[in-house]
Every structure is written in structure tokens, then in C-alpha cells.
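User: For my dataset I need records formatted as: sequence, then C-alpha cells, nothing else. Please produce one.
Assistant:
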Amino acid sequence: MWDAFLNRLGSALQNEAKRKQILGQFWRLIRRMMALSGWAWIFLASGVFLAMHWIGERNLTTGFLLFLPPVIWFLPLLFVLPACLIAARKTFLFVLLITAWLLYWGLDWRPGAADELLTQPSTRGPNTLTVLTNNRGQHAGQSLQPFKNLTQPDLMVFQEASARAAGYLNAPGYTEFIDAKSIGEFTLLSRFPIKTAELLPNPDDPSKPHLFAARFVVAWRDNQEIAVYSVHLPSPRDFLLALRRGAFLYGVLGVAGGSWSEKKQHYESFFDQHLRFTESLLQQVRSDPLPVVVAGDFNAPSVGYIHTLLTQDLADTQETSGSGFGFTFPGTTHNPLSLGGPWIRIDCLFVSTAWRSLASMAEPERRSQHRAACAVLEFQTTP
């Protein structure tokens, strides 16, 4: 059979008309395959990002995918883009369009360099407030001073900074701050008086303090009070290590029920806790009578569902006025897929409607576990 096929093919190729017909059919097949590869990537990448955005931490599998380097979903473009450019130009344009949409909407990439409001404090108006947030844990001895001196914040919101207030106030590099308070693991440095500091109630046991969030009240200019929330949701490090050998698939396998469903519920309890804490925080923020700034290490990638919940009530400064991707974690890594730098954004600044974010950026360089984030805010109503 094979010999007969080769004989017929050889005879056909000797005929010029048939040869052109065969080559034309072959080229059309190649074009269809190239176009199909482009559409396959479009549906796969869009589906993954939509699932992470709208399902995210509510499912074990999509919750795990949030923490992977996002470049994984764009690697197929190394083949898809050249193939479509050569053989399927219309599909090529659609692929470019979806790529731009995923970068802007999915990863919150914003074009342009950091606004001069961040790097030239003299350009800021009298109605502005500059806030910097950073998780000090595992800073590897790397100083925050260069970024602090560049942005000159009015408030510095720290996590994993237990009992650090007095030390900062007495440090020669922080003389611009007149007040500081520490409660739990949280410390706030301020150019303005800090009136109160308290831990939020624990949603799992209201009789106990919430170890993952604190509220500070600051007497801003003209005695306008503002509420500053510092947040640090539990780290997923050990949880993710337990999933990386395949347990994250229980998010799909456990849907049908049985023993896999029990394992799915067991592992998802971590994300369930994150969701409870986030909803509790939002309830507090909604009822807060003061203008609100929420800052901290949320351990919830910006592409996920928890971030979606937060932005239903608050504005994310990176989304509204950021530059670049704003990635903050991990500050340094040997992962080739991230080119040695951070690949997710878990350290964020959110604001209530009383504020408008004018400029926002992530710390560009520092070999610490977390990089800082900073934003210049404008008060919407004159105090």
C-alpha cells in the first residue's frame, strides 16, 4: 500500500499541473494549521486568565496557577507569532490584540516610565499624600533608604515590623517623620500625628484580635483624619510547596466527588481563610467614616479573585496610575522564566473614592524578598 502511494505521488509530481495543485493544497493545509495554532493560543491564554480572574482562589487549581510566572502563558508566542505572520496574517493581528489585552487587563501592565510626581516631590500639590508600603521580612540586609529618599513618602506602612516604631524615630535616616506606632507585626511611620492604632477583629473569633490587619488613624493636614489599613495575609509558601507535585489538580479532579473531593476541600481551606479575611477587611472598610488607604502584603496575586474582590470597593493605584508591571515578589530569584526578578504583584496600595491616585510604582531594584510599592494620592474633597 505504501509503495503504491509513493508511486502515485511520484507520477503526480512529474506532472507540472498536478505538482502545482499538490503544493497549493499543502500550503493551504500549513496555513490552516498555523491559523489554528494562533486561535488555540488565544482560547487557552484567555481562558486561563479569565479563570484566574473570576475563579482564582475559590478553586485549588486556579489558585495555584496564580503564583506561576505569567511568562509561561506567553511562551507559545515564540512559535505562534512567526507562524501566523508568515501564513495567517489576520490571525496574527488577533493574536497581537489578545496579547496586548492580557498584558493590560490581565497583568495590569501600564506603558511609560514612573511619573515625575514620584521622583520629584517638589512637583506635588498641597492636597497630595504619598504612601509607601513594604514587607520587611527577609530583606536580606538590603536597605530601603534609596527608594525612600527617591520618593520621599509622607507615610511608610510596614509589615513584619514588630515593635520597630521607636527604632525608626531614633534612626538618623528617618528624621523627616514626626510620629510612629507599632501594633502586632505592623508599624506606621508618619510625617503627621498618629492618633490611634488597633488590630482588626478576627473574623474567625471576634473576641480575639485580627493578626493580619491593623487600622491607624492619622491626623493629616488641617486635622483631616484618614484611616490607614496595613494588611498581611498568611504566606502561601508552605502551602504551594505541598501542591507543586500535583496536588493542585484536586481542584479539577475533586469536582466529581469522592475521596478526591475531600482532598480538594482540605487543600482549599487555606484559600478559604484568605477569602474570609478579605471579606472581613472589606466590611470594615465599607463602614469606615474616614478616607481610607489600604496597603500591605496581600499574598494574593493581582490577577486573582481576591484582588478582584478588593477592587470592587477600592481603587488599585497600579491599575489607575501605575507604570510597567508593578511586580514586587520575589525581589530576587534564580528562576529563568522571570529573568531573575519579581513576577507577581502581591504588595499593593488601594484607596477609597475620597482619593485619586496620581502616580504609582514598584521599587525598581532591591534584592530583598519583597520590593516596596509607592503611590502619590490626591484628596478629592478639600478638607
